[in-house]
Design brief:
The structure is a single chain. 36% of the residues lie in helices and 24% in strands. By secondary structure, the chain is α+β, with helices and mostly antiparallel strands. Helix 1 runs parallel beside helix 9. The protein folds into three domains: 163 residues, FAD/NAD(P)-binding domain (3-Layer(bba) Sandwich); 129 residues, Protoporphyrinogen oxidase, mitochondrial, domain 2 (Polyamine Oxidase, Chain A, domain 2); 106 residues, protoporphyrinogen ix oxidase, domain 3, CATH 1.10.3110.10. The strands form six sheets. The chain has a seven-stranded mixed β-sheet. The structure holds flavin-adenine dinucleotide.
């Protein structure tokens, strides 16, 4: 029997283990921490709280398909509220409905929102007048947005949205690697970026289709179902951390704390710095490429508060905060409005995100967040319960050149360690569906030379 060792039990590693088992291999999964990795749901107030990811994209098939395979399809729910607000120029303002990842596709609607000034709208209109020249190299998101749509739209729409999703700064993130949709728009041959985004919207799903789904009991239900599936399949769960991989006969010796495992194929699905350390002995150049991927830290501050403690209607999914507003909070999800089964008639759940420029601010996060929520959304009541979930070095930052780096990593492994693969958030997409896709592909890739897949 072919033995596959999967290192890391986040969503990527769990899916890789399932795929390898499905292909007929004997599988050992190494996970020294919490199974599910960055997908964690825990008891909070009177329900179950997602401490990190709270949904997956519905526009791509991987999340939905996996839920179907695991018997979770009937439990999927979509957010009841889709429209966010932006805290801009000192007030919460509705994010226009017509936008693609923050690129406005109806400038009149944007003007009416008050998010950007009249000068900001004039600057954005120039995109419709000056022919779009496709970038010839990888560029930052910010550079294209500032050039086409002006600084205000770049800073008050695109950066809060795209920077928020990636816990990064759009002036430093690669357009091609971070937002392939916008990269494709820029290279589509359309006369302007706005027109290219309009064309994508017209060709894409209906505006009324759900954008996200999540299991009703939280994202942890997905990883719990995966773990249950792996145990049914006889996958061995081992809590030892992997240290290194060395060649051994025709396969590999995986050094773990206090011993080793022999494997025919290995999938490394840990964060990049750990993958680098594990691969250093066998593939030094690949390790150097992995080690240079930067990470940002974030914290989620979740709050349960009496409904009467908030002096405004929660008519949306939450709000984003542009960096220029100078607040600690980068975004706040109105969790009970988005997911009406969470909280209750008399209780509201909120989830505030914190962490900009790579680091979580120092000091009393809870106090800073409550002050920001008082200022932005008139939170007056004392919370019944607060949970601060810190996620140090959790968001890989795809800088300019990231895609070339990932290709070099794959090529380096194919040349030196063909039955070893790396996969996960650090490489080809950090959203849950992208991790599912990578876990599957990595298992198939390492098994192909062995004739098992
Ligand atoms: C706060 C937050 C909010 C997010 N929100 C969303 C969202 O709403 N929607 C969405 O789609 N995505 C979201 N994401 C992103 C997404 O959740 C992650 O990118 C994804 O879960 C990462 O999965 P992974 O398996 O690649 O890595 P991880 O989950 O990091 O798993 C890696 C695993 O490797 C293990 N490991 C470490 N060292 C070793 C070792 N030596 N040996 C063996 N194992 C080891 C770790 O313990 C860990 O469990 C969010 C992320 C965060 C942090």
């Amino acid at each position: 029997m072919t033995h596959v060792v999967v290192i890391g039990g986040g969503i990527t590693g769990l899916v890789a283990a399932r795929e390898a088992s499905e292909a007929g291999a004997t599988v050992t999964l190494l996970e020294p921490g919490r199974l599910g990795g960055k997908v964690q749901t825990s008891a909070f107030d009177n329900g179950m709280l997602d401490e990190a990811a709270d949904a997956f994209l519905a526009r791509v098939p991987e999340g939905i398909e996996l839920c179907e395979q695991l018997g979770l399809a009937g439990q999927l729910v979509a957010p009841a509220e889709r429209r966010a607000h932006v805290f801009s120029h000192g007030a919460l303002r509705r994010l226009p409905e017509a936008h693609l990842l923050g690129v406005p596709t109806d400038l009149d609607e944007l003007a009416a929102s008050g998010i950007v000034s009249a000068e900001g709208i004039t600057a954005a209109r120039r995109d419709l007048e000056e022919p779009l020249v496709a970038p010839t190299t990888d560029v930052t998101i910010g550079s294209l947005m500032r050039q086409r749509l002006g600084h205000e739209v770049a800073e008050r729409l695109v950066d809060p949205l795209v920077g928020g999703i990636n816990a990064g700064n759009s002036d430093a993130l690669s357009l091609a690697a971070t937002v392939p949709q916008l990269d494709a728009a820029a290279r589509s041959g359309a006369a302007s970026l706005i027109e290219a985004c309009r064309a994508q919207q017209a060709a894409g799903p209906n505006r009324s289709d759900p954008v996200f789904f999540a299991p009703r009991d939280g994202m942890g239900a997905l990883t719990a179902a995966l773990v249950a599936d792996l145990s049914r399949r006889g996958v061995t769960l081992n809590t030892s951390p992997a240290r290194s991989i060395e060649p051994c006969g025709l396969g590999w010796r995986v050094q773990v704390e206090g011993g080793f495992l022999d494997a025919d194929a290995v999938v490394v699905a840990t964060p990049a710095p750990i993958a680098a350390a594990i691969l250093r002995a066998g593939a030094a150049r690949v390790a150097t490429l992995l080690a240079a991927i930067p990470y940002a830290s974030v914290a989620m501050v979740s709050i349960a508060v009496d409904r009467e403690g908030i002096d405004r209607e929660l008519n949306g999914s939450g709000f984003l905060v542009p960096q220029r507003e100078g607040l600690t909070v980068t975004a706040c999800s109105w969790t009970s409005a988005k997911w009406p089964h969470l909280g209750g008639d008399a209780t509201v759940w909120l989830r505030a995100s914190v962490g900009r420029d790579g680091a979580i601010p120092t000091g009393q996060l809870e106090t800073q967040v409550l002050a920001d929520l008082g200022h932005t959304m008139a939170l007056r009541g004392r919370p019944r319960e607060v949970r601060v979930s810190e996620w140090p070095a959790s968001f890989p930052q795809y800088r300019v050149g990231h895609l070339a780096r990932v290709e070099a990593i794959d090529a380096g492994l194919a040349a030196t360690m063909p039955t070893v693969a790396v996969a996960g958030a650090a490489l080809r997409g950090l959203g849950v569906p992208a991790c599912i896709r990578q876990g599957r592909a990595a298992a198939q890739r390492v098994l192909a030379p062995l004739g098992t897949a």
